[in-house]
Amino acid sequence: MLALMVQTQVVAQTDELGYKTVNLSMGPSYQNQVFFNLTNENTKSQLANQWDIAFYRNSNMDMGIKVNDAKDIKVYQVSATPSAYDAVDLSQKSTWGESLYNPDLTNRIQEGAFDKATLLPQGQFNFGWGSYDMVTHKITGKVTFVLEYGDGSYYKFFINEFYGGYTFKYAKWNGSSWEATQTKTVANGSDDAFFNYFSFDSGEKVNNIEPTKNDWNFMLTRYYTFYNNIMMYRMSGIVQNPNIKVAKKQPETQASSTYSTPEQSDYSDIITSIGHSWKPTSGVHPDVVYYVKDASNYYRLYFTENGGTTTGNVSFKYKNITSELGVTDLGKKASFGVYPNPISNKKATILFDVKENSSNNGSAEIYDFSGKKVFETKLSKQNGLQQQDLNLSNLNTGTYLLKITYGGISETKKIIIK
């Protein structure tokens, strides 16, 4: 089954500060799911209700099963006895406990409601809905679930096993009894996507829901969150690709030619790092800015429109600031940048992204044009994005060479001190 979708390239306008304006729409009542790529401005939009279950397919050694929050599905765990599937009684709903939801505060995009089931004893061989079998090396299903939809319909659902794919069964409640059970298998396959998607209505896998894994950064979608620590509430917002990291700064002037980059500890791979934090109940927060790290590219981004449920319109401005940071790769081990350049007030910041551990710290050295070393400091060998401030008050104004060394590899960059 092919998904109904539209894939386009957004024609973004650029303002006087170099920021591109992007206008996207989830449509009235947030009926669409929209993917966006910061690098090439590609967007992919489609009806969000074309699937029910998403099966993580990116690895034969990892798994995850999610429900479609666009369909307002609540998941109940009925029993950890597999035979209970045949005797599911909706009149017993009050005994099933609280409903389960896809987690939103996670850095594992594959984690879903079924993986959060709690009826099995905690242990290294239990995985929410099933248990690892050391003989067959399969995850074998144990827990029976009931799915309650926002429109009042019900399905009972059981995952038989995971082994290079997922075998499962389901049946729909017709108002007086369960319809015939359908058993299906969705193999992981070779799609360049994080998930395989399945529709109960068609009884088939739905193709082309996602762009390829490296062709999107943000997904505008629906998801549940524990809103204001009061109740589970279905939001519309942004889920990020697990391959990027995001840092939020507030307060910060949005439309500005100057800015200070976040601390390393501020960057997060939580999939809702942006989420709905850019918007109050209406409009947008005027003092929130996001910094996005995608491989060796860095972006600065802020939101300008929130159309709400009436239109589903979302607008934001963003700019690739990699060249402003002067980011340079040090082979496979690290990349670095210095900001600002030219340097004002004799204060600069080095951004240093360690990709592979080294046995020694890195170093930053500054030379004048006679070849004399006039400044030196060590750089952390800790993995991840680091930020180190430089006090160059002892240096005269002029042009210098900044030499960064890490893992036996050196790169030199010209800097100007005003």
From TrEMBL:
It comes from the Bacteria. This is Por secretion system C-terminal sorting domain-containing protein. It comes from Soonwooa buanensis. InterPro entries: HmuY, Secre_tail. CDD domains: HmuY. Pfam families: Por_Secre_tail (PF18962). The keyword Oxidoreductase does not apply. Residues 338-417 form the Secretion system C-terminal sorting domain. Keywords: Signal.
